[in-house]
## 1
Amino acid sequence: MTTTVHNLIDGQWVGDPQAERRNPARPEELVSVAPSSGTDAVDAALVAAGQAQRAWAATPAPTRGAILLDAADLLRSRQADVARDLVREEGKTLAEGMGEVRRAIDVLRYFGSQGWRHGGDVLPSAVPGTTVFTRAEPIGVAALITPWNFPIAIPAWKMAPALISGNAVVLKPAELTPVSASHLATALTDAGLPGGVLNVVHGKGSVVGDALARDPRVGALSFTGSTAVGLGLHELLHARRARVQLEMGGKNAYLVLDDADPVAAARVVAAGAFGLTGQACTATSRVYCTPGIHEAFVAAVAKEAEGFVPGDGLDPATTMGPVVSVAQLATDVAAVERARQQGATVVAGGAEPEGQLFAPTVLTGVAHDADVVRKEVFGPVVAVIEVADYDEGLARVNDSDYGLTAGICTGSLAAAHHFAEHAAVGVVKVNRPTSGLDLNVPFGGVKDSSSNTFREQGPTATEFYTWSKTVYLGFE
Ligand code: ADP
């Protein structure tokens, strides 16, 4: 079945669908046709958002929250259908797709319930007969630009804090995954979100995304995607002193110490490296092992890699979905080829892809400055490198342009604590995969992984979408 996707502007589903998306597991299957919008659609969305925002901000926060909670219930009742559509357009396994839709539901519930707490603080004043309080004021119109790899969860975790804070939103979903974003928007409109509060404009990043980034009506822009695009957006938003939040690439490392169990460590690393077909900004892509465990770990992680069953995500036997696109597949293949040229040995995977199925790949014998250690691949490829000791391992982990997540496998509390303190990343995992995040804690990175300003998710997510006004109330 082919889904016809429209833009959502001022509460109306509009726009001529032109851009085709095929199932990455079955290229003969046309999954969707979506608008390839021009700047006129961006303008219409911003007009609608600007008009709707005041009334939305004046709506009591618990009432705003109730709409998010109702949308969560609707999405829950549609979870299996939405997950199947997500799998067909993005390529995850059905279990991963169900988990992602569940995440979007939980995010809506989390921020929906924040409606009862949203506002500010009451603080003592040094002036007698005076109360001081703060008000969390909405920014106004927030633009959200999102990637294909979490096509419903990322729009949800940006949109929910923006909406609960009283902002209107214009979402520009990734071109490859328009259907998932549409399901989220439909749940919200079905739950009673007023027209214009949420607008969705499909199209190219260089057209729709660029127009949003340049438009002074956008007071805040939250972006998840590549570092190259993100840094360009940062320039534009910074120049006009608008809020900007960027979550970009990663080159996430794991350090495996001698005292770890090699099989348990291999499971943790494989889950982070190969889960979601390695297509997560938090995926593990470099592993450093101390000498006593290196050999056993390489054997164990190669076995884990060979245990995956690549296939169509809707097939229950599949444990790894296809690569999202032909272009991404070419990147994965080229990265392994380049690593080979630079001296790597392929100990698992590395075979010719079948269609868009790419076997999880483990490389050894890689130099510290090899491209596969330095550059993000965004596929199921991991390099394992021996280091002399913990100190060298930590130094290698931190020797990267990126700083999103990093992990350590050890039973030593001292090593775990030292690593947690000194790893130059936004998220540290001890004996847990680098990917996989809770929704109630801050998420973000440092260095080229993030704008490193406002964290996403958790209780502070709304800070990005609000500004603080201080009120002195004299009553005597
Ligand atoms: P990926 O390689 O993961 O697709 P991109 O950074 O290219 O990462 O895309 C992430 C999001 O940014 C997508 O929605 C894409 O359409 C959008 N995008 C791409 N180029 C631009 C741009 N020049 N300006 C604004 N948004 C863009």
Note: The two ends are 69 Å apart (CA to CA).
## 2
Amino acid sequence: MTEKRTDKWWQDAVAYQIYPKSFKDSNGDGIGDLNGIREKIGYLKDLGVDFVWLNPVYQSPNVDNGYDISDYQAINPEFGTMDDMTQLIEEAHANGIKVIMDLVINHTSDQHPWFLEACKGEDNPYHDYYIWSDTAEKPNDWQSIFGGSVWEYVPSLKKNYFHVFAKEQPDLNWENKQMRESIFRMIRWWLDQGIDGFRIDAISHIKKSSWETKARPDWPHSPFTNVKGISKYLKELSAVFKEYDIVTVGEASGVTAEEATERVGNDGYFNMIFEFEHISLWQRDKNEAVDVVGLKRALGRWQRALDYGEGWNALYMENHDVPRSVSVFGNDAPQYWARSAKALATMYLLLQGTPFIYQGQELGMPNMTFTAIDQLDDVTAKNQIKALLGEKDQATKTLEILELMSSVSRDNSRTPMQWDWSDNAGFSTGKPWMAVNPNHKTINVAQQIKESSSVLNYYKQLIKLRKTKDVLAVGHYEDYLPTDEHVFVYERFLEHERVLVIVNLTKESAEITLPQTVVGKSWSLLLTNMEEDKETSAVTETVTEKMTIAPYQALVYVHN
Ligand code: TEU
Ligand code: CA
């Protein structure tokens, strides 16, 4: 009699993010495509996910892998056709999987017809679809997120246009009503194709400050991130969304937990947002130890802020913009690789919110070891490499750059999905557009399906657990031991149901002392990532006041 405690399907759902270019190639050209995704619907169903988010598949010159759109209402031929898209939606739906798409509306490609028109002259009706300086002079020294000035000069117009990202990604002018109407028409058109919602790209940046505003010293992007007045546009956008029964997830960099309810509360603009606090804790250097206290503080703050119906969290540890979580937050050394991948999964998949799994994360795919500069593809990696190569002599510099890129580049998460042991990891019969990680010989889907204790099978267990226990879907959140530097301890509770999660996020074994509110209850072990050690004393079947938690050990207990 598991009566669902929520009427919102997406609160009970698990999402899976697909980076189409690297997921599955169906026709041997080395590029993943829509028909490749169709081939893998069975895999997704078996994993237990309820909806997929596709990174952009629209027409694009691919300066930023599809985030530079030249036609919103066309599929990039390298991914297939509109018919393939329709088929994909139909087949996914037939298998109980919904499909959401990426909505990139802060900017277009510089090859979009609107921008080509805009450059023809000030009288052109599309000129004001973009943002221009009054004169040849750059209005300020704001720095773009991808490096360099936000301004790019157009000689024929003797003016500059504004871009938050690459110069090939001119920002749309949200102050212009016609522009907004064009975007809203496009949104409705896609929703009428039967998709189930959107992940909304870079939405924090659609409003810009007045040109004389100074960037905050600690935050160069402050003049164009969550600027006062943005609500007007978010409200209009959400009114369009509300015409449909869909799910919306905003990519909300810079939004704090305190501000979140305005975005995702009952009258919010989105159903959920991707916050950046926890993920920003370590993008810099992999040698930096994980700040467990900081991670707990960030995640706990978001859990509490949106609990009790205040809003809803989107939970994630990876996406196409960040290196692999097992290498950054976990530990990809052989003895800890699988265990730490499972520890991270336990830690975030049982929080309150809708979990997003990024392709390959469910295998514990680690970062890539790049061995040649031309293996790197990402526009930001290339910019960074160009700047670094300028400095020292080439040979020594190259090695340093490769080492750096192997830990920080967005390309780490964009290597092809590892389906099997074969040469191209079962991703393609042709030459993959991007180097396959050599570790696919041991880390791949085929292998992990066979092994009962694999990371993949552990993910399946966690997903199943979320689905069978109401307390994990909608229960409240409470954490303990906030200052403990190794272990994350939290509880989910709903009326009489209680689940206790204990995860050591470090490579040191840790002693913890649990509070009486926890110890006073009787608990039994529901799940652990050290199943194989159950016979030994490493895993305790019940909760005691003093516990020793092994490196990267995860324990999930249920109150009897
Ligand atoms: O990323 C957006 C992004 O990186 C910023 O929103 C973020 O604000 C910044 O890191 C904080 O300073 C999205 C896509 O996910 C990414 O792949 C694209 O490259 C980018 O937008 C441009 O479309
Ligand atoms: Ca292909």
Note: The first helix runs from residue 34 to 39.
